[in-house]
Amino acid sequence: MQLPFYSSFDEVRAEAAMCRACGRADQRQQVVMGAGDPDADLMLIAEYPSQTDDSTGQPYTGPAGEYLDELLAFAGTDRSSIYITNVVRCYATESGRRGDRIKPSTRTEQHACSTWTSLEIQFVRPRVILALGAPPARVLIDESFELTDQRGTWMTRPDGVEVTATFQPAYAMRMKSHDPDRAREIESHLINDIRAAVARSNATPPE
Ligand code: SF4
């Protein structure tokens, strides 16, 4: 994919803030671009912003963000050392059986937003990407990626960035009230996977 030229990351962010390339633009308050260290070696990529993120303009805020902060601390890192973004940058809802819920991202929306995903990767230049959940893993690794079988498997993208996937922290948090044992299991995998991604991003590259 030929990316548009921007001379600075600020220019990218200013242009993305006005994006209306997919239907999610109609429901958002604001575009939620990534946040964190713009020179981070580790980038976390989730699926979409939450309602809280839509208000704050920052990714992974609110209760899910607090939970992510706990997981990062257990894994030996924090937000100031990494960069966090999503594969779609606008909050949207749809009607479900129990009322409105966050609209999962479609392939069309992910594709429309991939310009910003690629530009964030290009400007931050992480050594390692950790996808949070299957939808971002399918965008970043392979369309047929299955979290159950391939979680924690490392691959190298054509741009040389190493990438793997783990659970979505918000999923683990929701699971706590339904199935505490399973939630504990997922949480343990999450901490280990984040820790492995931190270690890999800090490792000395081969000569
Ligand atoms: S989700 Fe991405 S592509 Fe769609 S309008 Fe928002 S910023 Fe643009």
Short description:
With 207 residues, this protein is an alpha/beta fold. The protein has one domain (10-201): Uracil-DNA Glycosylase, subunit E (3-Layer(aba) Sandwich), CATH 3.40.470.
What does this 3D model show about the protein?
The longest helix has 23 residues, at 180-202. Helices cover 43% and strands 15% of the residues. A 6-stranded mixed beta sheet has the order 1-3-2-6-8-7, with helices on both faces. Strands 4-5 form a two-stranded antiparallel sheet. The protein is α/β, with parallel strands linked by helices and 207 residues long. It has a single domain (10-201), classed as Uracil-DNA Glycosylase, subunit E (3-Layer(aba) Sandwich). A hairpin with a 2-residue loop joins strand 4 and strand 5 (99-102). The structure holds iron/sulfur cluster.
Strand line-up of the largest beta sheet:
1-3-2-6-8-7
**SS summary, helix count:** 8
CATH topology: Uracil-DNA Glycosylase, subunit E
Described by strand count, sense and barrel closure, the largest sheet is: 6 strands, mixed
Shape: globular
Evaluate the radius of gyration.
Answer: 16 Å
Distance separating the two termini: 30 Å
As for the number of domains, it is 1
The CATH class assignment is Alpha Beta
In which range does the helix fraction lie?
40-55%
Strand portion: 5-15%
